[in-house]
Design a protein that fits this description.
The complex is a heterodimer of chains A (107) and B (619). By secondary structure, chain A is of the alpha+beta class. In chain A, 20% of the residues lie in helices and 46% in strands. Chain A has two helices and nine strands; from the N terminus they run βαββββαββββ. The radius of gyration of chain A is 13 Å and the shape is globular. By secondary structure, chain B is an alpha+beta fold. Chain B folds into four domains: 213 residues, Nucleotidyltransferase, domain 5 (2-Layer Sandwich); 71 residues, Actin, Chain A, domain 4 (Alpha-Beta Complex); 109 residues, Substrate Binding Domain Of DNAk, Chain A, domain 1 (Sandwich); 88 residues, Substrate Binding Domain Of Dnak, Chain:A, Domain 2 (Up-down Bundle). In chain B, a hairpin with a 4-residue loop joins β25 and β26. The radius of gyration of chain B is 31 Å and the shape is elongated. The termini of chain B are far apart. The chains are: A alpha+beta (107), B alpha+beta (619).
């Protein structure tokens, strides 16, 4: 059972938390909706909840709730640059297909 | 595919529902676009990693060059390369200073001037829209989606016409404008001052070619602009020019060609920038003429040669503080904006004057755009519930209505927070008056002729009534962007007329500053002028009444009485042309007293005719 960050993603997350001035780590999760069933969630975390699992990846605390972990186990979060756009990308081995926009997926 | 950003806890957007919002600093020299990404405000860059977009538009026969690409065209095709178009926004030809020195072909059209280019006649709104369109495309490429909205910044002294023009330009560029925000307010927001304790702040904005100083007061989340001042011909370019002149002096070279002059200017700028980080800088250049410039400039040299320029910035600072009735010690923080504020001696001078270190840790070129982005993010609804802040803007100059005698009746005072609506009742001046014309003006002075005319409209269809009987309710409404609409309603009949103020043209920056200043300086003179106008109106009213009475009931007077009254009327007519309120007032009173008896006789006649044929018991 694990969720990992690429080194580059971890560096950016660390940076963003520093600039934000506070934060325990980041939360990954899924929520239902979107054109392909489920959508990724990516948020700052100020405090982990009882139900949460916490992983450590390259020094960044990655928080996830148990339900979401079932859909995200083995996921690697990367930070990529595509032209002018840059941001985080979920490499999720559980996703069977995803909509063209990459924001929602199906297992 | 879309790349994800880290959201605030609980704020992840639903897929395809991202509310992408940007802040845009549409500057005279450079423009920028910024957004809040992963919780942090950042400026968005082009493919070469440059955040600044020079505000330059070059119209060629078949296409348009913009920003850095248009830099060279300033020299090669000046007529079609529009520089500093912001100065023309919402302006008529008469409003623009030094227009004769500009290389453009201007056209005067009602409302706003236009420029004739290789692609035909273009309005400043269209030219600004080209710049905004590039920024919008950059933002959409960077954020991976369509924008929900944008906050565009404008100088604090921009009047209604200039704000309207800016908003129109954004709309033309396909942007949904969430709010127009004052530049100094945006800078204060970028520093998070809106979350801090209340107090007075100064924003010191020294750009490439202009200097603006604003005094802001923060009270309960509202930034009021207490005073603005500035110098439209003072900026970082003047510092380059001093260095350039110094180099010409010391290198002992022949007067340079145009091309060499340009290269020397660019070298001067590089030296200036180097001197902000090091104690000395080489000024080395081989000119096309074969001559060599090989000099070393120390910081001390540079400070010495530009000291007068630095001192010049303090003049508007002092004026603004005086207008606001404050001393330097009342200022709680000083925000530095504009690339030229990086110069150490500017920072030192400001620190000495205000007795505190100015805020400089944000990039002064980007600070306005960053603050606008933060505001846009909040307005688009990307903030937590408990973190909501509401930033209010204020009316820069009072809005009023012309009343009889050319006086300005202020309906919405300066610094009223937006949005705002105020209503006031007016009445008719003459018997049977069926129409009323409204003249909307902006400014602090008492006389309409000293204020800026914004718009005129008419209310028709008022039922004929005695003078003073009609009740006309005039409502001024200003929306959150500072745009005005005015309506007039005759309350007994419901006849209504209204206007959205699309002002014909705006004020020059200097004019606004001057109007604010003169409003304070001329308070006494204005009052005297007001008294005179009021007496004139009174005189005209009584003359009108007497003329009518004489026409109707002149037979009640014997010849001597009639002659006496006619003489007094003639005398008062003469006095109205004069400039002394006191004698005019005396003339009004004399005529009024002399006609008292006549008025009483008229009253009796009316009573008698009303009673004729009626039994006293019926009454």
């Amino acid at each position: 059972m694990s969720i990992t960050l690429t080194e580059r993603a971890a560096r950016h997350v660390g940076n963003f938390i520093d600039k934000r001035g506070k934060g325990f780590g980041i939360r990954l999760g899924v929520k239902t909706s979107g054109c392909s069933g489920m959508a990724y969630k990516l948020e700052f975390v100020d405090q982990a909840l009882d139900d949460d699992l916490v992983f450590d990846s390259h020094g960044v605390k990655v928080v996830i709730d148990r339900k979401s972990l079932a859909y995200l186990n083995g996921t690697e979060l990367d930070y990529v640059r595509e032209g002018l756009n840059e941001g985080f990308k979920f490499n999720n081995p559980n996703a069977k297909n995803q909509c063209g926009c990459g924001e929602s997926f199906n297992v | 595919m879309a790349l994800l950003q880290i959201a605030e806890p609980g704020q992840s957007a639903m897929p395809h529902k991202h509310r992408l919002a940007v802040g845009i600093d549409l500057g005279t020299t450079n423009s920028l676009v910024a957004t809040v990404r992963n919780g942090i405000a950042v400026c968005l860059t082009d493919e070469q990693g440059r955040a600044l977009l020079p505000s330059l538009v070059h119209y060629r026969d078949n296409d348009i060059e913009l920003g850095f690409d248009a830099m060279n065209a300033r020299v090669s095709d000046p007529r079609n390369t529009i520089v500093s178009v912001k100065r023309f926004m919402g302006r008529g030809l008469a409003d623009v200073a030094h227009i004769e020195a500009m290389p453009y072909i201007f056209e005067e059209t009602p409302g706003m001037l236009r420029l004739r280019t290789a692609q035909g006649s273009k309005s400043p709104v269209e030219i600004s829209a080209e710049i905004l369109r590039v920024l919008r495309k950059r933002a959409e490429a960077s954020l991976g989606g369509e924008l929900t909205g944008a906050v565009v910044t404008v100088p604090a002294y921009f009047d209604d016409a200039q704000r309207q023009a800016t908003r129109d330009a954004a709309r033309l560029a396909g942007l949904h404008v969430l709010r127009l925000l004052n530049e100094p307010t945006a800078a204060a927001v970028a520093y998070g001052l809106d979350n801090t304790s209340e107090g007075v702040y100064a924003v010191f904005d020294l750009g490439g070619g202009t200097f603006d100083l604003s005094i802001l007061k923060l009270t309960r989340g509202v930034f009021e602009v207490l005073a603005t001042n500035g110098d439209t011909a003072l900026g970082g370019d003047d510092f380059d020019h001093r260095l350039y002149c110094w180099a010409l002096d010391h290198a002992r070279i022949a007067p340079p060609s145009a091309e060499d002059a340009r290269r020397l200017q660019m070298a001067a700028r590089a030296v200036k920038e180097l001197l902000t980080v090091s104690e000395e800088a080489p000024f080395r250049l081989r000119l096309d003429s074969g001559e060599e410039v090989d000099l070393t400039v120390t910081r001390t040299d540079f400070f010495e040669m530009t000291r007068p320029l630095v001192q010049k910035t303090l003049v508007p600072v002092k004026r603004a503080l005086r207008d606001a009735g404050l001393s330097p010690r009342d200022v709680k923080g000083v925000v530095m904006v504009g690339g030229a504020t990086r110069m150490p001696h500017i920072q030192r001078t400001v620190a000495e004057y205000f007795g505190q270190e100015p805020l400089t840790n944000l990039d002064p070129d980007k600070v306005v755009a960053l603050g606008a982005a933060m505001q846009a993010n909040a307005l688009a609804g990307n903030r937590r519930e408990d973190d909501q802040w509401l930033l209010l803007d204020v009316i820069p100059l009072s809005l009023g209505l012309e009343t009889m005698g050319g006086l300005s009746e202020k309906i919405i005072p300066r610094n009223a927070t937006l949005p705002v609506a105020r209503a006031q009742e007016f009445t008719t001046f003459k018997d049977g008056q069926t129409a009323m014309s409204f003249h909307i003006v902006q400014g602090e002075r008492e006389l309409v002729s000293d204020c800026r005319s914004l718009a005129r409209f008419e209310l028709r269809g008022i039922p004929p009534m005695a003078a003073g009987a009609a009740r006309i309710r005039v409502t001024f409404q200003v929306d959150a962007d500072g745009l005005l609409s005015v309506s007039a309603l005759e309350t007994s009949t419901g006849v209504e007329a209204s206007i959205h103020v699309k002002p014909s043209y705006g004020l020059t920056d200097d004019e606004i500053a001057a109007m604010l200043r003169s409003g304070l300086e001329n308070a006494d003179g204005d009052q005297a002028a007001r008294a005179l106008r009021e007496q004139r109106v009174e005189a005209e009213r009584i003359l009108e009444a007497c003329t009518q009475a004489l026409a109707a009931d002149g037979d009640l007077l014997d010849e001597a009485e009639r002659t006496a009254i006619d003489a007094l009327i003639a005398r008062l007519r003469k006095l109205t042309a004069g400039h002394d309120a006191a004698t005019l007032s005396e003339g009004v009173n004399t005529l009024s007293r002399a006609t008292e008896d006549f008025a009483a006789r008229r009253m009796n006649r009316t009573l008698r005719s009303a009673l004729t044929g009626h039994n006293i018991d019926e009454l």
